[in-house]
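Deliverable D2.4 — example input (structure tokens):
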């Protein structure tokens, strides 16, 4: 299979427009890294095939043309879901507003998440729904600071947990959804993504990526044929070949087998005296 690896699919941008053209032309499958409850809706809107790595881990599948209506959500007993004239949606319990509900953009009142507050007004937790209306995750807070995210499978069973410290993910676990026994754990997001991509991708797969950040780093342990498709200047602000690109061309990043550039970028690399055995021209 031919994947196009993105950290996140952000529609409506110039960068995505160019990538999308090549995705469609070469029948690629968009593979994204960032957890995204709206992912299924986005790939439907964009008309592309897609897979999110978290959905791969949780074995989540989506139902087309299904969503959860804003008042069809589980709330505490005796609580009411009320929509106001200004469009805001409140969860009210005995006259007190205990939560606010938010909708997916450009939908017919499809619930995106419910944000519950403590009595002092600080966030308690957020319940997120996938685009097809199934429970996606819970985000737990203390003193308005995110502490943990739990991601669920289609049976609303926890599978993946992100733990936070000082605003950064510092521990991740994957658990058996039935026994809750931890199967794997990771010290950080990079370790987790590296391991899961090395499991997903085979020698028969091709992975194209455009940016030399997390998208490149998470391919470190893969056996796939990995291709950098350069969409930014090969030279940095000082007129020097970008560090990671130079390392690829010099064979110091061996898991990137091929670099594709346009004619102008090719000439810039040639003039800089870079090895060109991994470089081919496109566009």
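Example output (designed residues):
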């Amino acid at each position: 299979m031919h994947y196009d690896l993105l950290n996140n699919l952000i529609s409506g941008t110039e960068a995505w427009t160019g990538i999308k053209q090549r995705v469609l032309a070469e029948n690629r499958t968009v593979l994204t890294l960032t957890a995204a409850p709206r992912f299924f809706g986005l790939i439907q809107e964009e008309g592309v095939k897609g897979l999110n790595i978290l959905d791969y881990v949780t074995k989540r599948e989506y139902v087309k043309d299904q969503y959860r209506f804003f008042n069809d959500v589980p709330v505490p007993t005796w609580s009411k879901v009320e929509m106001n004239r200004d469009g805001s949606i409140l969860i009210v319990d005995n006259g007190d507003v205990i939560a606010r509900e938010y909708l997916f953009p450009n939908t017919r009142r499809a619930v995106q998440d419910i944000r519950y507050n403590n009595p002092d007004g600080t966030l308690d937790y957020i319940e997120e729904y996938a685009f097809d209306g199934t429970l996606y995750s819970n985000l737990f807070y203390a003193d308005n600071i995110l502490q943990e995210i739990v991601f669920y499978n289609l049976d609303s069973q926890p599978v993946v947990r992100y733990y936070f410290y000082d605003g950064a993910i510092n521990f991740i676990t994957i658990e058996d959804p039935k026994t809750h026994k931890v199967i794997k754990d990771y010290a950080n997001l990079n370790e987790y993504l590296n391991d899961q991509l090395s499991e997903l991708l085979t020698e028969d797969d091709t992975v194209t990526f455009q940016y030399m950040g997390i998208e490149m780093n998470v391919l470190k342990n893969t056996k796939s044929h990995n291709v950098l498709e350069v969409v930014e200047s090969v030279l940095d602000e000082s007129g020097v070949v970008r560090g990671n690109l130079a390392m690829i061309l010099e064979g110091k990043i061996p898991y990137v087998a091929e670099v594709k550039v346009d004619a102008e970028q090719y000439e810039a690399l040639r003039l800089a005296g870079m090895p060109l055995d991994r470089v081919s021209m496109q566009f």
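The longest helix spans residues 14-25.
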